[in-house]
Write a structure and sequence with these properties.
The strands form five sheets. This protein has a five-stranded parallel sheet with strand order 3-6-9-2-10. It has helices spanning about 10-35, 40-50, 65-75, 95, 135, 140-145, 180-185, 200-210, 220-235, 240-250, 260-265, 270-285, 295-305, 315-320, 325-330; strands spanning about 1-5, 55-60, 80-85, 100-105, 110-115, 125, 150, 155, 165-170, 190, 235-240, 265, 310. The relative contact order is 0.16. The chain folds into two domains: about 25-235, 3-Layer(aba) Sandwich (Rossmann fold), CATH 3.40.50.300; about 235-335, Magnesium chelatase subunit I, C-Terminal domain (Helicase, Ruva Protein, domain 3). It is α/β, with parallel strands linked by helices and about 325 residues long. InterPro entries: ATPase_AAA-3, CbbQ/NirQ/NorQ/GpvN, ChlI/MoxR_AAA_lid, P-loop_NTPase.
Length: about 325
């Protein structure tokens, strides 16, 4: 039995036809990204899944793992206008949102004119977001949730679609600030980037130290990407997948009957995590060439969707436990 959360009638034949048309574009997207990003297939899959779901992603890893290159390549391949902000300790909110300037007209009258900041783009790369102060980090909150900003009491809508792909250095490194919990929750998923495998690093050496650099070409247009994003929201979801999402997210919260969570988690994911997991499961299925998500999608996405929405108790940290380990235990109980 399948369900559809939007309340509209599902025309399965039409969805299948649209999905088949989208699969070709997604396959070409993978090929173009592979020209520039070597290895890291899981990272590429997660990043594309986040964008197809219509959300934002947080890329976490040490410097030099091609996080910036990945974001630039995604902007090119997906046909999105892209902007970049390098977050530093002295960055101010106006440096991101824009500001009003006082101008004199030809007749001598003075008026304010709003100059848009780099956030007015379709794909914003927030580079090393945790190097800026919490005040500056919070400048993204309204934009990431409501897709507009308010400056001096005036609302300015952002381009559509609008995505934030932020890179972050591990918190144990010097000169970083933890992201506020409210902002972490706005990210659809956290994508951890590890060092490349041996063969991938060998390919990086051979392909990037010569005289000719590989470049990716555009595959999608803004209109095609938005059509795929709408398709993702219309994909039918089996009842078993809905039940698994609810069971997993609710068991991740303290006070909901799970002994491990009650003992080791101080706060857990809210309803936005369930929404994120539902959308990402649909997008991952389409990315893999399937027309409906499965329990395997929920298992694969549990860690990236939940880990930044949970916090260990002090005692759990002292015992050397990890959020990732607890999520793995919860996923194992889905069977």
């Amino acid at each position: 039995m399948s369900v559809h959360t939007t309340g509209e009638t599902v025309d399965e034949a039409k969805i299948v036809a649209e999905a088949e048309a989208a699969l070709s574009d997604i396959a070409k997207t993978k090929e173009e990204i592979a020209k520039v990003i070597f290895g890291q297939e899981q990272v590429v899959e997660s990043a594309i899944t986040a964008i197809l779901s219509g959300g934002h992603a947080l890329l976490v890893g040490v410097p030099g793992l091609a996080k910036t290159k990945l974001v630039e390549t995604l902007g090119t391949v997906l046909g999105l206008s892209a902007g970049r902000v390098q977050f530093t300790p002295d960055l101010m909110p106006a440096d991101i949102l824009g500001s009003e300037v006082l101008e004199d007209s030809e007749n001598g009258k003075r008026s304010f004119r709003f100059i848009k900041g780099p956030i007015f783009t379709q794909l914003l790369m927030a580079d090393e977001i945790n190097r800026a102060s919490p005040r500056t980090q919070s400048a993204l909150l309204q934009a990431m949730q409501e897709y507009h900003v308010t400056v001096a009491g005036t609302r300015y809508d952002l381009p559509a679609p609008f995505h934030v792909l932020a890179t972050q250095n591990p918190l144990e490194q010097e000169g970083t600030y933890p992201l506020p919990e409210a902002q972490l929750d706005r990210f659809l998923m956290q994508i951890d980037i590890d060092y490349p495998e041996l063969e991938a690093e060998r390919q990086i050496l051979l392909q990037t130290t010569g005289t000719i650099a590989q470049e990716a070409s555009p595959v999608l247009s803004t209109e095609k990407l938005q059509a795929i994003q709408l398709l993702v929201r219309r994909m039918p979801v089996p009842e078993s997948v809905v039940d698994a999402i609810l069971k997993l997210v609710r068991s991740s919260r303290p006070g909901h009957g799970n002994e491990t969570t009650d003992k080791h988690i101080s706060w857990g994911p809210g309803p936005r995590a369930s929404q994120s997991l539902m959308l990402c499961a649909r997008a991952r299925a389409l990315y893999d060439g399937r027309f409906a998500p499965s329990l395997d999608d929920v298992r694969a996405l549990a860690e990236p969707v939940l880990q930044h929405r949970m916090a260990l108790t002090f005692a759990a940290r002292a015992e050397g436990m990890s959020v990732q380990g607890i999520i793995k235990d919860l996923v194992a109980k889905l069977d």
